[in-house]
Amino acid sequence: MHQQIYVNLPCKDLAASRAFFEALGYTFNPQFTNDQGAGMPLGENLYAMLLAQDFARTFTSKTLVDPRTATTGWVCLSCASDAEVDALVAKAVAAGGTTPTPAQDHGFMYGHGFEDLDGHHWELVHMRGLPPQT
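== VOC family protein ==
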């Protein structure tokens, strides 16, 4: 059905947001990057579009909320291991991000997350198996 996913995230300071994600090891596709937006590949056919707030407003008639004070959703990415989860969270904190909750170990799944410079919540999970049957 769908071939790609693009998560659009308004940013107060696009250059600072780019630097933050570059510190985590992400890159940007120059074909989809300029002074109004930055296309960040997350995986095969998965992208985050970091958008300057004024540019983001051109796509919606709704008010852009402050992700530091309101949640409308969050990005959840899978990782290959618990160690990868922890390493990305550590890089995010070192680059100026915060951790809104402690790491959680549910047995079949390990997760932790961070908030980026704008307050967008990024959850990272390592799926170790299937959840228990109830």
